[in-house]
């Protein structure tokens, strides 16, 4: 069979998928039920993916088949027609944010050519560094936070006191936060949603300069697809949570000391990203309901052309 290249702008199909997930999840906002919100988003996303003209395989999904009945790693999605694609999904990046009615929850999806997306295997977490276009090639995850903050300040021609670092608010980051404060930089602590956190480093007027810290590996791969299209950069290093995970990763052939570049996480230059806001945030507005209609805001990115679209849509309320 002749291989069909991924040469059409499938991102506009993908935004319909994230819109469906965001609309479904929004009905659970603030209800205190993470599982209910996630289940609704997964159901809606999977149903919408069935209509997309592609032969996709989930590389980054809701987990292994025995743990997740839908959108599990290895699941085939799409209508089965060419082209063949790798898919990374996160029906809700920020389930806790959604359940508590807090900002910055997104429905996200990334797609790339078959065989181009990094499979993290048993490693659920990675250490990450994300920056925007003006800092590509300058910062390094192998440098200390202080050294990177000095690089940012120099490159942007600002005082280090005016540099803002994004960090997930976790106990594991106590030393990192202390170092950033000691260096004199500002910190934006986020409770969840580090896909949005990474993207803001490349988003104009977001006020974010660099993102540090340990977060989900799936979110790292998805954010890398977005940053590739925005001209930014994500570096990562796998971070096993325990000895069992470390042994499993080494047995599977993973080099835990390797710094994974944006191209390692999503190879080539033909990937797509779509995100729709569930709750209002710095990056996107959430789902808003008015008489008879529901409005959404989405971000749609294609790396091949470097096109970044901010899309507002109004949907008839069902």
What does this structure look like?
It is a single chain. The protein has 318 residues and is an alpha+beta fold. It is built from 9 helices and 13 strands. It has helices at 11-26, 34-49, 95-100, 145-156, 174-183, 194-200, 217-230, 243-251, 262-265, and strands at 55-60, 76-77, 84-93, 106-113, 125-131, 164-168, 186-190, 210-216, 233-238, 272-277, 288-290, 293-302, 307-316. The strands form 2 sheets. Strands 1, 2, 3, 4, 10, 11, 12 and 13 form an 8-stranded mixed beta sheet that branches. Helix 5 (174-183) links the parallel strand 6 and strand 7 (186-190). Helix 1 (11-26) packs antiparallel against helix 2 and helix 6 (194-200) runs parallel beside helix 7 (217-230). It is globular and about 50 Å long. The N and C termini lie far apart (42 Å). The mean pLDDT is 93.
Features:
single chain; 318 residues; alpha+beta; 5-stranded mixed β-sheet; 9 helices; 13 strands; globular
- Average predicted local confidence, pLDDT: 93
Assign a percent range to the helix content: 25-40%
Radius of gyration: 19 Å
Number of helices: 9
Structural class: alpha+beta
The string of secondary-structure elements, in order, is HHEEEHEEHEHEHEHEHHEEEE
The proportion of strand residues reads 25-35%
In summary, what is this structure?
The chain is of the alpha+beta class.
Lay out the secondary structure.
Layout lengths: L10 H16 L7 H16 L5 E6 L15 E2 L6 E10 L1 H6 L5 E8 L11 E7 L13 H12 L7 E5 L5 H10 L2 E5 L3 H7 L9 E7 H14 L2 E6 L4 H9 L10 H4 L6 E6 L10 E3 L2 E10 L4 E10 L2
Parallel strand pairs: 1-3, 6-7, 6-8
Antiparallel strand pairs: 1-2, 3-4, 4-10, 5-8, 5-9, 10-12, 11-12, 12-13
Helix pairs in contact: 1-2, 6-7
């Amino acid at each position: 069979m002749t291989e069909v290249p991924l040469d059409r702008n499938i991102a506009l199909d993908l935004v319909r998928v994230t819109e469906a997930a965001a609309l479904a999840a929004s009905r659970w906002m603030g209800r205190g039920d993470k599982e209910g919100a996630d289940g609704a988003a997964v159901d809606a996303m999977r149903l919408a993916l069935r209509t997309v003209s592609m032969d996709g395989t989930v590389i980054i999904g809701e987990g292994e088949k025995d743990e997740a009945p839908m959108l599990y790693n290895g699941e085939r999605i799409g209508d089965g027609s060419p082209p063949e694609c790798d898919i990374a999904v996160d029906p809700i990046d920020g389930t806790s944010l959604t359940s508590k009615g807090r900002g910055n929850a997104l429905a996200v999806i990334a797609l790339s050519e078959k065989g181009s997306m990094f499979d993290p295997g048993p490693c659920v977490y990675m250490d990450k560094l994300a920056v925007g276009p003006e800092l590509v090639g300058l910062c390094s995850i192998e440098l200390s936070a202080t050294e990177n903050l000095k690089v940012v300040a120099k490159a942007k021609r600002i005082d280090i006191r005016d540099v803002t670092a994004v960090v997930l608010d976790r106990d594991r980051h106590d030393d990192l936060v202390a170092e950033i404060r000691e260096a004199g930089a500002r910190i934006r602590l986020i409770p969840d949603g580090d896909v949005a956190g990474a993207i803001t480093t490349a988003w104009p007027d977001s006020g974010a300069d660099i993102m540090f810290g340990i977060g989900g590996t799936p979110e790292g791969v998805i954010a890398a697809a977005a940053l590739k299209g925005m001209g930014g950069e994500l570096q990562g290093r796998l971070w096993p949570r325990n000895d069992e995970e470390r042994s499993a990763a080494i047995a599977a052939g993973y080099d835990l000391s390797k710094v994974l570049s944006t191209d390692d996480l999503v190879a080539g230059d033909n990937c797509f990203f779509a995100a729709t806001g569930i709750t209002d945030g710095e990056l996107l507005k959430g789902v808003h309901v008015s008489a008879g209609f529901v409005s959404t805001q989405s971000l749609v990115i294609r790396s091949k052309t470097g096109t970044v679209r901010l899309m507002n849509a109004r949907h008839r309320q069902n």
